[in-house]
């Protein structure tokens, strides 16, 4: 049985766009985050008017043109596969605005939503502006692309990152959570994980659990799945021979990523 936190691809045609994934507040436990993944053929388009949400449009694969008002960002996107492991281009659009995405080549775009708390300028986030960092050691190593980190004032509530984890490693580990609005110690941020796996027939494991175990789900995640993290710890384990990619969308009442490690496992950080 598939967990209520795990969503399989939809692959639903709507107009000229294929809706590959769609996570909405009305049919999930989320109050701040929504996510949509679309696929476009060349010259096909997708249009949307934002109301109360802002949106980061990530040119996941292929090439797209994004238009908002007087802004037109033509032929953005840097890779044919996320596993080329190079940063890509994105576009931020604030609430109350309309945008159009057109496929230049066959392309996939990730649409990451959170509440628009203030009107902000539309902005192209160029691939070369995306910070890349290495985190962890031993079997806890991963590469991170910081598309919209909390240090970037482009957005009012939205946080977006990409993470690569090699086979035999864990990420989001030691298990950490950010489900308490208790600054400066911990921030409340909901989160979604959009997963891809190389090769695609692989799988990985993700557990989402709370201290009192009122929520405790362990999922066998496959290529194209989304895992919803409304609260709780959420580690990811990748089997040998496969590489994990995931796109994280986070948002909450405060645009700060301040997490709390599971005290049962925090000792792992003290190893020499």
TrEMBL record:
Describe which pathway this protein belongs to, using the record's wording: Polyol metabolism; myo-inositol degradation into acetyl-CoA; acetyl-CoA from myo-inositol: step 4/7
Q: What is this protein called?
A: 5-deoxy-glucuronate isomerase
Pfam families given in the database record? KduI
Function, please? Involved in the isomerization of 5-deoxy-glucuronate (5DG) to 5-dehydro-2-deoxy-D-gluconate (DKG or 2-deoxy-5-keto-D-gluconate).
| A molecular-function term among this protein's GO annotations | isomerase activity
Give the gene symbol.
Answer: iolB
Species annotation: Saccharibacillus kuerlensis
- Reactions catalysed, as given in the entry: 5-deoxy-D-glucuronate = 5-dehydro-2-deoxy-D-gluconate
Q: What EC number(s) does its UniProt record assign?
A: 5.3.1.30
Q: Which family does it belong to?
A: Belongs to the isomerase IolB family.
User: EC class of this enzyme?
Assistant: isomerase
Q: Which UniProt keywords apply?
A: Isomerase
Upper classification of the source organism reads: Bacteria, Bacillati, Bacillota, Bacilli, Bacillales
Cross-referenced NCBIfam families? myo_inos_iolB
């Amino acid at each position: 049985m598939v967990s209520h936190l795990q969503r399989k691809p939809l692959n639903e045609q709507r107009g000229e766009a294929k809706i590959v994934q769609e996570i909405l507040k009305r049919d999930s436990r989320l109050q701040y985050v929504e996510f949509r993944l679309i696929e476009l053929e060349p010259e096909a388009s997708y249009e949307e008017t934002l109301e109360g949400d802002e949106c980061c449009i990530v040119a996941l694969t292929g090439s797209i043109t994004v238009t908002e008002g007087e802004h037109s960002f033509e032929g953005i996107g840097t890779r044919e596969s996320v596993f080329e492991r190079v940063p890509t281009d994105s576009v931020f659009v604030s609430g109350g605005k309309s945008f159009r995405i057109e496929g230049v080549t066959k392309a996939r775009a990730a649409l990451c939503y959170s509440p628009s708390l203030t009107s902000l300028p539309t902005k192209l986030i160029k691939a070369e502006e995306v910070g890349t960092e290495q985190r962890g050691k031993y079997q806890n190593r991963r590469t991170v692309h910081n598309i919209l980190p909390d240090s970037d004032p482009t957005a009012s509530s939205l946080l977006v990152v990409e993470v690569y984890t090699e086979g035999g490693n864990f990420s989001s580990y030691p298990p950490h959570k950010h489900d308490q609005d208790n600054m400066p110690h911990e921030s409340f941020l909901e989160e979604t994980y959009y997963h891809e796996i190389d090769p695609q027939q692989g799988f990985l494991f993700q557990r989402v659990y709370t201290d009192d175990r009122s929520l405790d789900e362990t999922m066998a995640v496959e290529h194209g799945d989304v895992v919803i993290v409304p609260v709780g710890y959420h580690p990811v384990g990748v089997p040998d021979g496969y590489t994990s990619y995931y796109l994280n969308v986070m948002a909450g009442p405060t645009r700060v990523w301040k997490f709390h490690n599971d005290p049962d496992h925090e000792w792992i950080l003290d190893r020499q």
